[in-house]
């Protein structure tokens, strides 16, 4: 059905009505020789509530022409107008309070119009894809109650012009298509979708890049920045810009505070607001006069936008701007209240102002019950609800509002990551009892006192026979681990500590605790060199054991890629029968088909080098036994203890900040060793440019060190000289020249291309003192322990990361001897970064500095950070406190409902955010 409403001379207005109740308003052409102005149609939903209306204070021509203009003002400020009355004068037209629009130049004739109009008064067919009206989505919107702050204007609009319908349920609200947003044409919705905004959530997660603030116009005006001004219109001109476009230029004069010293008077700045109207039709005089007449000299206006300096002093051009008329004094304050103003980045070509406008409408359409977060969590962690957070980030009243909102949104990023990790871990456990045990342990991560008397006899015996006493944080760490080992559920703990702090002995003692009660242990390390070193060290410690340990001496085996087939067969058999109590090896421990008789603990050294996948494989391989349905479900039964999944103890020598550790290993309990063994002397560190003078100095230092009986590591970035990188020093290439330079002192070479036994031989000779200089690549970075090595020189040090250099430096100063470390940089420019190592030897501090400089992904190296989560808003480097809160909140939620059944909203959100994680049903 179609109804012709009005026919006003040259303007025809038709309305078609769909059976579904939606309308399409069509404004037919008008003719304005010589230019043909075509006023396009406009979709209007719920037209029964929005009867034929014109604009109030908005340029009508612009409105009529921009059929997809998403500016909320174009729609929300609509007010009922009688066209017949307003368009009284022919051939001019006046709509609403607009000035007269001259349709023709003075001498144009109108004779052709009647016949033209007949032809044009056709009724447009309604677009088949026209969306269902909003009211089908749910009950009427109620006025939202804001906990923390209110956006008066928005609330008013809700009441005054309520969007007829609310969305059915929070679960689906945010994930609904923008097509369903009131007053959004399908063309605009498609455009939004193509630009990456298919849903309301995606749109609301497009956060402002910054906020413009009225206050900032009072300071220095910087080119390219966003500012807000209040001022007076000086002139307004509509001009032809050639035959293809029209220009509106409004000149506004603003009085601002003078920031020059000793000048009390305010100064004037001049804003040239320029708007371009592309198309021949916008070059007509009537049109240009009409747009210019909107702003009159002396009008008070409020302008915001990006400024560009002009050649004349204190003159600025603004092409992207918003201008509002200020009529009354009160309005000034109303505007002031709306500060700060969000500035959006554009997306895929979509202009910031369009994005901002649709966001405003989306916010109005939302209800305040979109938050799946339980209210207990909101109140305990003092968080805004999600609705307020979206309002606060997009329409803050103060910058503090925006910051509060940002914190809530960051919290969510961390929270769902933690929740996902912990949830997956709980899923892997069989019974509720196990889950509750585990959560209880996470909540109470620290032990209050160390009770060595409760440790097993083998552990106590080894402890007694050590040539040193454990430091207090070594003791606490060991207590935490042993407490976990006594629990009937598998431990998943990360032992983290700075280089050389003594993690290995804590790991050994943890293994002794299970070996002493007849179980087995495995220690997996990333390199063969390290496996051999640990194997030798542990054996030598065990040799010194008192024979009084109830006659029990554990048998330790070494299994690496170089182990002969025969030997391997014997080891595998021994592990299966239980004759071998502990195996130390490389990743072959998980890739081999090893069967343990009763493996109780798996220690994974240098955790991040293996990654979650390998850790998981180790774990799940052994977990499969536990999940056997035929098992006895009494957790304390001997049978179950024997078949329980192994406890996992991961060691990390990278002293990553606790927050990063949480983000990476949110499903692990974290223990940190925070002190170093006593007697360690600070390593004297020097960063030098590796020019001739620098090398001379270093050679002299090496000579002195050799004379003083020291041992020296020379570390190189590459093995062989490279044509592509001629500036790099190479270990093999330098071997001859170094041997010649320090005649009388033996040198050895150690790099990754050598065979296992050659590496082992090189290291043994260096350890025994047969060689005094070891030319090595970064193979020595991890775990190599030669306590009396006293000097290190790193060539082309800028090629390494700060954290890596700290690890390398940790190869010296491991005993009581005073040690030195020199970092040689290729150029003076690269020297600056290395200087930070001169100032600090605290790994946590350096890692934090590195984190701030390079970001978390880089800190761990690309290879190892494949599993590092991406956070759109949060910055791990600075938002660590929120991460800690989020971790606790995730624990709280899971302890209230460990399968999340009580919180279906959270579960849905989690599966939406982490599509890869298996969430039961
Ligand atoms: N409490 C202690 N008192 C004295 N020396 C200790 C103590 N604990 C460990 N050590 C010694 O300190 C040195 C470094 O210990 P260890 O190799 O365990 O450090 P780490 O934390 O594993 O370091 P890295 O990260 O370099 O592997 C070893 O020679 C070890 O014997």
TrEMBL record:
Catalyzed chemical reaction(s): Couples ATP hydrolysis with the unwinding of duplex DNA by translocating in the 3'-5' direction; ATP + H2O = ADP + phosphate + H(+)
Keyword DNA damage among UniProt keywords: yes
Top EC class for this record: isomerase
Pfam families noted in UniProt: DEAD, Helicase_C, RecG_dom3_C
One annotated GO biological process: DNA repair
E.C. designation(s): 5.6.2.4
CDD domains: DEXHc_RecG
SUPFAM superfamilies to which the protein is assigned, alphabetical: Nucleic acid-binding proteins (SSF50249), P-loop containing nucleoside triphosphate hydrolases (SSF52540)
Alphabetized InterPro entries for the sequence: ATP-dep_DNA_helicase_RecG, DEAD/DEAH_box_helicase_dom, Helicase_ATP-bd, Helicase_C-like, NA-bd_OB-fold, P-loop_NTPase, RecG/Mfd, RecG_dom3_C
Domain Helicase ATP-binding stretches: 484-673
Origin: domain of life: Eukaryota
Stored SMART domains: DEXDc, HELICc
Domain Helicase C-terminal: 694-852
Leader peptide range in chain numbering: none
GO molecular function: 3'-5' DNA helicase activity; ATP binding; DNA binding; hydrolase activity
Record keywords, A-Z: ATP-binding, DNA damage, DNA recombination, DNA repair, DNA-binding, Helicase, Hydrolase, Isomerase, Nucleotide-binding
Protein family membership: Belongs to the helicase family. RecG subfamily.
Protein name: DNA 3'-5' helicase
Lineage of the species this protein comes from: Eukaryota, Viridiplantae, Streptophyta, Embryophyta, Tracheophyta
